[in-house]
Amino acid sequence: MTDQVFHASYRVRFDEAGPHGALRTSGYLRYAQDVAWQHSEALGFDRAWYGARRLTWLVRAAEIAVAAGARMGTSLDVSTEVLGYRKVWARRRSEIRLDDGTLAAWVHTDWLLIDAMGRPARIPHEISHVLHAPVIDAALARVVTGEPPPSAVSRQFRVRPQELDPLAHVNNAVYVDWLEEGLREAVLAPGDAAAPPPEARRRYRLEYAVAAEPDADLERVTWRTRAGWAHVVQRGDAVLFRAVVESDET
To answer: DSSP strand E in the chain: where?
Structure first.
């Protein structure tokens, strides 16, 4: 480990793999979240440090590129580093590698720092001083899905208690599980093509616009596009989450 790149080891557990025996896509995002916090703690900024200052990091956008499926029982090396930051947010890259060094996936995550009122907060000097990362001339990643066509598949659902994390938020990886549920539902629609298999090379671009509340009644809408799939989660007319999925198999 260096101050710039932090590594942690994981093993794909039985409960993290789907019926196909490969790590669910949300698992890559969960590892990226966890290793980011381990890195922060190693630098001296644990949750207690943030809590004393009434600050916290939230994921506003992410990109997951899966290159090779990680099978159940596989040992993984997961790294994280800060690619850059700008005033109130920072972008991290995680690489998930198999035990032979093969890249299984990479994850880019845009983390937004907020205060106790939920407002963007400037990154403290104590953190920027040790990041050794450049100030980047970029904006938080955005996702454009367009309007769903009449053929889009829509489902109503409710946020379940087990989907909340210790901050009483729907964890951002849960939205990826909802996305994959939407893909399966769309695949079952008459005359539609199959979704990419878990071994396929595929890329997910995700934007978290508004947090889903506990017990909220929501709607997910999924539809085919020329490049793959588009998906939104909404509460009434308010869009909470947008995603697009592209695959070599589409």
So the answer is: 5-11, 55-66, 75-86, 89-98, 103-115, 153-158, 202-208, 217-224, 228-235, 238-247
Below-70 pLDDT ranges, the chain = 1-3, 188-200, 248-250
Whether the model pTM is above 0.85:
yes
What confidence tens digit (pLDDT) does each residue in 195-247 have? 455 556 789 999 999 999 999 999 999 999 998 999 999 999 999 999 999 98
- Do β-strands 55-66 and 103-115 pair in parallel, antiparallel, or remain unpaired? antiparallel
Q: Are 149 and 233 in contact (CB under 8 A)?
A: no
DSSP state of 154: E
CA 1 vs CA 9, 77, 211: distances in Å? 12, 12, 34
Domain that holds residue 44: 5-131
Alpha carbons within 13 A on the beta-carbon side of 238: 11
Beta strand 202-208 with 153-158 is unpaired
Residue 65 pairs with which residues in a beta bridge?
A: 106, 203
Q: How many CB atoms lie within 10 A of CB 211?
A: 15
Residue type, 56: T
Q: How many structural domains does the chain have?
A: 2
105 burial level (CB within 10 Å; 0-12, 13-18, 19+): buried
Eight-class DSSP state of 177: H
Distance between CA atoms of 81 and 67, rounded to whole angstroms?
19
Q: Could you tell me if 157 and 241 lie in one domain?
A: yes
Residue 113 domain flag:
yes
pLDDT in tens, 198-209: 556 789 999 999
